[in-house]
Design goal:
The structure is a homodimer. The first copy, chain A, is an alpha/beta fold. The first copy, chain A, has three domains: about 130 residues, 3-Layer(aba) Sandwich (Rossmann fold), CATH 3.40.50.720; about 160 residues, Dihydrodipicolinate Reductase, domain 2, CATH 3.30.360; about 80 residues, Alpha-Beta Plaits (2-Layer Sandwich), CATH 3.30.70. Chain A is about 35% helix and about 25% strand. Chain A is built from 14 helices and 17 strands. In chain A, β14 and β15 form a beta hairpin. In chain A, α1 crosses α12 and α4 runs parallel beside α5. β12 of chain A pairs antiparallel with β12 of chain B.
Chain lengths: ~425, ~425
């Protein structure tokens, strides 16, 4: 292993450029750390003529990214094109089939095709690594698969999408509406023109599916994840939450136990004094709980050229040192994991109702709750000016999701309900 | 590598017992994760007859721990005896010389003899691992040496001693004095009968020396660390700090740059809204800053059987998978690192003076500060009842430590100073 590890990089956008900068700038350090050079020998991108501010002399250029898979001067393909299918998926598969290791930052690809690609990598005796796919530069895949390898993990959760966390933080600090802050985030480049992947929770779900599989050793199961985004969160909810001692965060949560695996992504009210409540702006945080280690927390920047390049480099250093063991391991023989649905989840709820102020309102709401055994914990009522509907906020004790949803469906049909009830789950971490 | 990895455990106290419990309880999981069994084949402890609640059938017993080094049925020795010298050091050296890998949780040993032992391990082609030596179950050595391997790290700091953090947290919450809380911590088993290692900052310094060497690739240098403990912190300082927006934490800080390496351990005032200020009780936290990744934060339990066993298991899984690369690497060719002293450090200071209330007091203090170019930032004065000395608290702008200390020495000699001035450094993270 004394020769250089030869790397082919597909995709020279912000992240790809960052990887080249890192390998160039910290080259001597990396060579020292892993005992051999890590050298970019080939690249591929859409536009050869674009000035990226990176020296590409002596590096082979492929117009077609797929050619990296057959380039004899490439040992490892770094895939930074993105997208669950299309050229990215073709490239990764072709590279593995050609006996090359693959490093990718593509969460959609891993969440959708990870198990199949991991099996292919294992057959080929090469590595498939994706530290950059989850939580930016935080070495969380390594922490889970190696650092906590002695533990049986029971729960993993985190703030996994910087765009949503930025929007919620801004909404809280400025009192502005979701649409306003989203538009600003788009202008600042923190949110995509089509923000759905981020704000509807899909990106968080991709990452959660990967984390859960790595943490629990369960089959990667993106399809079963309960996903709810942050579009429905209003400044009023953030304000009421604060009054009740909570902050609102979009959190991905996976729990694994005797009953099975429950994976869910939704906005949460979290107690303001918890570590995860203090993670602001574009930062990510992951909490992993194991039977021996207890609770461990990992925080850092969740995106951007630097953090992502850092994660790609960590994977390359591992591969350069010959550490090619599978991260997404096939499930243990005889183990079967049932994916659970949200229905049976026991939790607490924040509910905001907008009601026309008339006699008997509380009695009817209370009856709907009682009939489903939902027990109220706190109540806040705030007048909205005469003639306007009244904001009526409550939190509940623990109750099964299905019961809560049935009670809410009944409440939503009551004649004095002026708007669709707003429901946010309360998580006690 | 399909046969089991055979482990000999030296020391069956709380931690050693935890390791056996973990390898036993999570054996199937570990075998699945690393593709081979990790099996305890031999143990050594002082008292064979003590009931530890662990099944030792089928495991060889050695009255003399050194015999583990020559046991042909042992591939890896786990050293959990403790102490920088004596039997622990002899065992580790003998095991490495016998061609066995070593896993240890012994920070004093690594801080004192790490480089020599690491060089021996490298010569022998075996691993020397010590994840359990720093920050309990937090996989911080792995994060630094592998997860952030692509970065040039510039600063690492953390709360590394759970005993001190517990004492400071209790002092803050209850307003009780250091001695009181220490005595209670000793009763609860959170502090040793001889607490000096913990409360005088030595344990934190051991861990900081290890972290700095791993993070920066600089030679491990315990001797140069500036070390100050927490014995002089009073409830009054904690109260004033809170009034100024700070909390007091014992922090180990290492910075590495063009000028050299500065390592220091001392109580710090940290802004109350920073993540590290919120780390309470027996928890540890480490912050690592790299040129690409930015700031990353790691938190978890810093001690105890479970977290320590988790760290030992992670090292064993690595070794079982053949990952035997050096963690304490020899410095890069041509690199020389100058260890800096505290004198040149630029920082801000909290100073509490107890002064007899008389005219001209502030003028004389201000003159002493002015003559060393120390610029005051905030001032608090609080009467202590008539005839009693007055508490006079100030914070300063940035100034070199040497100047501040000269100014303070002059102030301490002023006739109206009733007690030794209390100085705590303010860290802006």
């Amino acid at each position: 292993m004394s020769g250089p590890l030869r790397v082919g990089v597909a995709g020279l956008g912000t992240v790809g450029g960052g990887v080249l900068q890192l390998l160039n700038g910290n080259g001597a350090l990396i060579t020292h750390r892993c005992g051999r050079e890590i050298k970019v020998t080939a690249v591929s991108a859409r536009n050869r003529d674009r000035d990226r501010g990176i020296a590409l002399e002596g590096i082979a250029w492929h117009d077609n990214a797929l050619d990296l898979a057959s380039d004899p001067n490439v040992d490892v393909v770094v895939e930074l094109i993105g997208g669950a299918d299309g050229i990215a998926a073709e490239l990764v598969e072709a590279a593995l089939k050609a006996g090359k290791s693959v490093v990718t930052g593509n969460k959609a690809l891993i969440a959708r095709h990870g198990p199949r690609l991991a099996a292919l990598a294992e057959t080929q005796g090469v590595a498939l690594r994706f530290e950059a796919a989850v939580a930016g530069g935080i070495p969380i895949v390594k922490a889970l698969s190696e650092g906590l390898a002695g533990n049986s993990l029971s729960r993993i959760y985190g703030i996994l999408n910087g765009t949503c966390n930025y929007i919620l933080t801004e909404m809280e600090y400025t009192g502005r509406a979701f649409e306003d802050v989203l538009a600003e985030a788009q202008q600042l480049g923190y949110a995509e023109a089509d923000p759905s992947f981020d704000v509807d929770g899909i990106d968080t779900a991709h990452k959660l599916a990967i984390l859960a599989s790595v943490a629990f050793g369960t089959p990667l199961d993106f399809e079963s994840i309960f996903v709810e985004g942050i579009r429905h969160i209003t400044p009023l909810d953030i304000e009421f939450a604060a009054e009740l001692g909570y902050r609102i965060k979009l959190i991905g949560i996976a729990t694994h136990g005797e009953k099975g695996l429950l994976q869910r992504v939704h906005p949460c009210l979290v107690a303001a004094d918890k570590a995860i409540a203090a993670v602001n702006g574009v930062f990510n945080a992951v909490v992993a709980e194991g039977d021996f280690v207890g609770q461990t927390v990992y925080q850092g920047r969740g995106a951007g050229a630097g953090p992502t390049a850092s994660a790609v480099a960590a994977d390359l250093v591992d591969i350069a040192q010959g550490h090619t063991h599978a991260v997404l391991s096939p499930p243990m023989a005889g183990s079967k994991t049932k994916s659970l649905t949200m229905d049976g989840n026991e939790g607490r709820y924040y509910v905001r109702l907008s009601v026309d102020d008339q006699p008997g309102v509380i009695a009817e709401i209370a009856a709907a709750l009682r009939d489903e055994s939902v027990s109220m914990e706190e109540l806040l009522q705030r007048p909205n000016g005469s003639g306007q509907p009244v904001s009526f906020v409550m939190t509940t004790h623990e109750v099964a999701e299905a019961k809560m949803m049935r009670a809410l469906a009944r409440i939503a049909r009551l004649p004095f309900i002026a708007e669709k009830p707003e429901v946010i789950r309360i998580e006690t971490f």
